[in-house]
């Protein structure tokens, strides 16, 4: 699944929707916390491009680093369900 971290839709208490660019912050979180070359490069891609393909391994890393960076609940509430869907995809048969 692709996620564009430049266009994350969040809602405030009045259900007013806003679009936030968190690509720099998410990319920076990889820079500050990873010791893995692959993750470092992935963070660089998020930082510079925003739109990235996210697999289960990357989704787990993004969640971990967002927790370590103390992203606001408003942002985590918008991003974590997307990541959880990638980590634990629902079987299409379950939806029937």
How is this structure best described in words?
This protein is an alpha+beta fold. The longest helix is centred in the C-terminal third of the chain and has 15 residues, at 73-87. The chain starts with a strand and ends in a 9-residue tail after the last helix. It is built from four helices and four strands, in the order E-E-E-H-H-E-H-H. The chain has one domain. The chain has helices spanning 23-33, 37-49, 56-68, 73-87; strands at 2-4, 8-11, 17-20, 51-53.
Task: Point out poorly predicted stretches.
Answer: none
List the total number of helices.
4
Strand content: 5-15%
Total number of distinct structural domains: 1
- How large is the radius of gyration? 14 Å
Shape: globular
Count every beta strand, where a strand is a DSSP E run of 2 or more residues.
4
Q: Please state the average pLDDT score.
A: 94
Euclidean distance between termini CA atoms: 22 Å
Strand order of the largest sheet: 1-4
Name the helix and strand elements from N-terminus to C-terminus, one letter apiece.
EEEHHEHH
Helical coverage, percent range: 40-55%
* Largest sheet properties: 2 strands, antiparallel
Structural class: alpha+beta
Topology:
Layout: E1 2-4, E2 8-11, E3 17-20, H1 23-33, H2 37-49, E4 51-53, H3 56-68, H4 73-87
Antiparallel strand pairs: 1-4, 2-3
List keywords for this structure.
96 residues; alpha+beta; two-stranded antiparallel sheet
